Amino acid sequence: MRNINNLTDQILSVNVRDELSKNLVIHKNVKQDIIITTEDKIKLVLINTRKILISQRDWWTPLGLVTSLVTTICTADFKETLGFNKDHWQAVFVMMSIFSAGWLINTL
What we know:
The protein is mostly helical. The chain has a domain at 59-108. It has helices at 2-12, 16-23, 39-57, 60-75, 86-107.
């Protein structure tokens, strides 16, 4: 029985550090460039970047308004409400559509 225990100890004993180091490949890529600049230049770059990012999505709101207002004009049956007759309500929606379309064209 003792021989079996010694045999299993020899078989099962594995040096993990040696096994890992045999099969381990290390790739080194630690090159870095260092840029030295002033605070005002960084602020200018951040401000310009912010303007560009905002201008790329400025058209979403007017497009959504134009879409919803035109859909309303096409599908709604305007009624007299709050002291305005149906023609006034339709005129309000047409004017808002025109203003929203102008806003959309301006942002594009």
